[in-house]
Specification:
A five-stranded parallel sheet has the order 1-2-3-4-5. The chain is built from eight helices and eight strands; from the N terminus they run βαβαβαβαβαβααβαβ. 37% of the residues lie in helices and 14% in strands. Helix 4 runs parallel beside helix 5, helix 5 packs across helix 7 and helix 7 packs across helix 8. By secondary structure, the protein is of the alpha/beta class.
Length: 257
């Protein structure tokens, strides 16, 4: 790997390390591009929800942005450091989110649709389900997100954990892959899922992605500096690329907000 656009920091509450530690490790590993994409804040009406440690708070965003920009200037010519976030697409909050990100100079978003609807009181995408409607809703919401043209790539598109009818899975995942192709959005083979032996990467999904001609990108989804590099995970991801005939993008063009 020469580029990783999927990197978290301590601010999300479930990762370790600050920006400098990741930059030092990335430089040692020989990366050319390091994108920070910590879990984006959501400016909920109920401010008590900001304290759930699954993402940074709105109050933390300016410090995060300033820290990444300082490192980008320091490492200029050695390591190309970019300022991004991993974001859900929540229709109710999306315009407010964009305003907040633009005000802080965030360069790019990757889509990580962890919840459906507008999150509050709705379904976690990674919970195993046999409910066809949940899968249909996930695909429809992610398709709507991709059609905004604002997401640089789609992180762990196979996060949805569907254990129901195989024909339904095939139909909906093809619909999702076709949306990714239609919008020119790469889909990510997620190395955190490989490292932790999660239900993703889902080989059923990646077989469909290959048949549909999707472009894949490998993302470390680093939650600690030592995740850079992840040579063992990368080799497994490259094996998937080969077996399923995927087009692999070593770098991606950032879609500005």
């Amino acid at each position: 790997m020469i580029a990783n656009y999927h990197t978290h920091t301590y601010r999300c509450g479930h990762a370790e390390g600050d920006e400098r530690e990741y930059a030092e490790q990335a430089a040692k590993a020989g990366l050319k591009i390091l994108g920070f994409s910590d879990h984006t804040p959501q400016d909920y009406f109920d401010t008590s929800l900001r304290n759930r440690r699954i993402r940074m708070t709105p109050e933390e965003l300016p410090g995060y942005a300033a820290s990444v920009r300082r490192l980008a200037a320091e490492y200029k010519g050695t390591l190309d450091i970019r300022l991004g976030v991993e974001a859900e697409y929540y229709p109710k909050y999306f315009s407010r989110l964009l305003q907040m990100l633009r005000e802080n100079g965030v360069e790019y978003m990757i889509l990580g649709q962890h919840f459906l609807g507008n999150e509050i009181g709705d379904v976690y995408s990674g919970r195993c389900t046999e409910d066809e409607n949940t899968l249909v809703r996930y695909v429809s919401q992610c398709t709507e997100a991709l059609e905004t043209g604002l997401f640089t790539y789609f992180a762990h598109p196979d996060l949805i954990h569907f254990g129901g009818d195989a024909g339904v899975f095939d139909r909906e995942m093809r619909r999702l892959c076709q949306a990714a192709n239609r919008t020119g959005t790469p889909v990510e083979i997620n190395l955190l899922g490989i490292r932790e032996d999660r239900h993703y990467p889902n080989e059923r999904f990646w077989k469909i992605a290959g048949e549909e001609g999707c472009t894949a990108v490998i993302g470390c989804d680093a939650h600690r500096p030592s995740d850079l590099p992840d040579a063992a995970g990368e080799q497994k991801a490259l094996s998937m690329v080969s077996r399923f005939g995927l087009k692999l993008a070593e770098t991606v063009e950032l879609r500005r907000l």
